[in-house]
Write a structure and sequence with these properties.
There is one protein chain. With 219 residues, the protein is α/β, with parallel strands linked by helices. It has two domains: 125 residues, P-loop containing nucleotide triphosphate hydrolases (Rossmann fold, 3-Layer(aba) Sandwich); 91 residues, Rossmann fold. 47% of the residues lie in helices and 17% in strands. The strands form two sheets. It has a five-stranded parallel sheet with strand order 2-6-1-7-8, with helices on both faces. The chain is globular, with a radius of gyration of 16 Å. The mean pLDDT is 97. The structure holds 2'-deoxycytidine-5'-monophosphate. The site of 2'-deoxycytidine-5'-monophosphate has 15 residues, from helix 2, helix 4 and helix 8.
Length: 219
């Protein structure tokens, strides 16, 4: 069994940035489970499935085979052997991932992949249900969050710096909608595991959050 660090939290809390840094410092592998849900979402979008076509999610995800590999230590997501890592970071794919991950068939598809990775390797795995459902025996669990305002501001800054036109109020509304869906779905909703350490990063620097998590890891 590898040493397992589970980081859960809402969209935009900085999970992937922090998890990557923690993994680097501890020499662990970073596993981004959101990217796997995004790959399935991309598959659905390519098949013309709309966010409201909830009854199509289970059927249309059947022929999506999601795997991952590492290139220079960076996780790559493969959808039916095609590297889609560069195509899954859009708001459209993120919103579709939030909607389609409500479906039990979609979730079941990714469960073994995630559990097997953690069995074999020392991992920092981030997502929504890692500490509560995927790795209930993880050695360290963190629930990382920040206020909606702060998460929206960070996202706005990130997109603006990339030259993407965006609207702060729209970003805030999208984040609220995703929180609502991710936290209130029936299967494996986002919630803090009882034994998770709660970190609100609203007034913390990236370095401070990274150090706080690394201090919890005693391998
Ligand atoms: O972390 P992210 O924004 O890349 O995740 C996209 C969506 O995927 C998220 O809104 C909900 C879903 N997801 C999930 O249901 N369970 C996970 N472990 C990770 C992501």
């Amino acid at each position: 069994m590898g040493f397992n660090v589970a980081i859960d939290g809402p969209a935009g809390a900085g999970k992937s940035t922090i998890a990557k840094l923690v993994a680097k410092e501890m020499n662990f592998i970073y596993v981004d489970t959101g990217a796997m849900y995004r790959a399935i979402a991309l598959h659905l979008l390519r098949k013309g499935v709309q966010i409201t076509d909830t009854d199509r999610f289970a059927i249309d995800c059947q022929d999506a085979d999601v795997t991952i590999r590492y290139e220079d230590g960076v996780q790559q997501v493969l959808l039916n052997d095609e590297n889609v890592s560069g195509m899954i970071r859009t708001e459209e794919v993120g919103n579709m991932a939030s909607a389609s991950s409500v479906d039990g068939t979609v979730r079941a598809k990714l469960l073994d992949l995630q559990r097997n990775l953690a069995k074999e390797k020392d991992v920092v795995m981030d997502g929504r249900d890692i500490g509560t459902n995927i790795l209930p025996n993880a050695d360290v669990k963190v629930y990382l969050t920040a206020t909606v305002e702060e998460r929206a501001n960070r996202r706005f800054k990130e997109l603006s710096e990339k030259g993407v036109a965006c609207d702060l109020e729209k970003i805030k509304a999208d984040i609220k909608e995703r929180d609502e869906r991710d936290m209130n779905r029936e299967i494996a909703p986002l919630k803090q595991a009882e034994d998770a350490v709660y970190i609100d990063s609203s007034d913390m620097s990236i370095e401070e959050v990274k150090n706080a998590i690394c201090a919890l890891i005693h391998k």
